[in-house]
Write a structure and sequence with these properties.
The chain has two domains: 98 residues, no CATH class; 211 residues, Lipocalin (Beta Barrel). 40% of the residues lie in helices and 22% in strands. It contains twelve helices and ten strands. It has an eight-stranded antiparallel β-barrel, surrounded by four helices. β5 and β6 form a beta hairpin. The longest helix has 22 residues.
Length: 331
């Protein structure tokens, strides 16, 4: 009997296959499997892609098309591109399956960033009104560097290890432009394991931003393989008398590591990246690319000298001292 996570992954693959078969069999815009492979994000990237393509085309001709877990995100991207570029409107009977697979439907109100288990209407209703959403995003929208004590640190270490992550909370203006009903976030982190593939490929947790009872909570799902999926970050919203954007946040994180093998819980400090709350796609991409090069497990003695704000260094050190006392836990 399959576990719930495995069954869900299998169901999503079947849903995506159903959409792919419809696109090819319906002859809309003369879509073929060849065109779907042409939209594959790894096309031309390596010889490995050509081998994957040959294998899939052989299966299609002899035993039916199949999608493996690690290939699912790439085929999802390819099918989404085909639908968007060709302005294809899926029939009503297939829309629910497409959304379940993670395909963004024109006119649909569910973003592919929001995991299937999150009730959008429920999240929306947790915010009292649009003014409350604006209030929260005005304080926290944009990009953050997130610091927590590494799970590889121990009480005997003379130089603690720090895990640095990159958090983006979509700005309110972008949320309105995209027609999103709830605020969204994405958190990037890099492996702490001795695994060269994972070290070069950051993990990502994406989902919704909630506010209730005086606490901001980010709840999302980790993309990719692995059995640990659900991630949560939460902190108290106290605001400030000037109603300005917050510069730092202090909270608790309980998220999967980038391999999806364990859930790690710890205190964290978030430092706002100045100017990143502006609606400027080029600036955001530059910020993200720069920050993704520096995320991962690093020496705290080395890192502290790169942080200009002394108050932030003090808060991070206090957080690590608290984490060392209260323990970084992992399951």
């Amino acid at each position: 009997m399959l576990g719930k996570d495995v069954q869900w992954g299998v169901d999503r693959a079947f849903a995506l296959k159903a959409v792919m078969q419809y696109l090819v069999n319906s002859k809309q815009k003369r879509i073929t499997y060849k065109k779907i492979f042409a939209a594959h994000p790894k096309k031309g990237a390596s010889r490995e892609f050509d081998e994957v393509k040959r294998g899939h085309m052989f299966m299609r001709e002899n035993a039916g098309f199949d999608i493996y877990e690690e290939e699912f995100p790439h085929f999802l991207t390819a099918v989404q591109k085909i639908i968007d570029d060709n302005n294809i409107e899926l029939p009503l009977f297939l829309r629910e399956a497409a959304q379940y697979a993670g395909i963004r439907i024109a006119g649909g109100d569910r973003s592919t960033t929001i995991p299937y288990f999150i009730d959008i209407d429920g999240v929306g209703s947790s915010m009292k009104d649009d003014k409350e959403t604006e209030e929260i995003l005005r304080h926290y929208q944009g990009c953050w560097e997130v610091y927590r004590l590494s799970s590889r640190s121990s009480a005997t270490d003379t130089d603690e290890k720090v895990n640095v992550g990159f958090l983006n909370i979509k700005p309110l203006q972008l949320m309105r432009q995209l027609g999103l009903s709830v605020p969204e976030f994405s958190l990037y982190q890099r492996s702490e394991e001795e695994d060269t593939f994972q070290v070069s490929n950051p993990g990502k947790v994406s989902g919704a931003v909630l506010y209730n009872g005086g606490y901001v909570t980010l709840i999302g799902e980790r993309a990719g393989r692995g059995f640990a999926k659900i991630g949560i970050l939460t902190w108290a919203h106290v605001g400030n008398i000037f109603e300005e954007h917050e510069k730092t946040i202090f909270g608790i994180t309980c998220i999967p590591n980038s391999e999806g093998r364990r859930i790690i819980g710890a205190y964290f400090i978030g430092q706002f990246i100045s100017g990143s709350d502006e609606l400027n796609e080029d600036k955001y991409r530059m910020t993200r690319e720069k920050c993704l090069k520096t995320i991962g497990s690093v020496s705290w003695n080395d890192l502290r000298h790169t942080i200009e704000d002394a108050s932030v260094v003090q808060r991070i050190q206090a957080t690590f001292d608290r984490s060392s006392r209260d323990c970084v836990f992992q399951v």
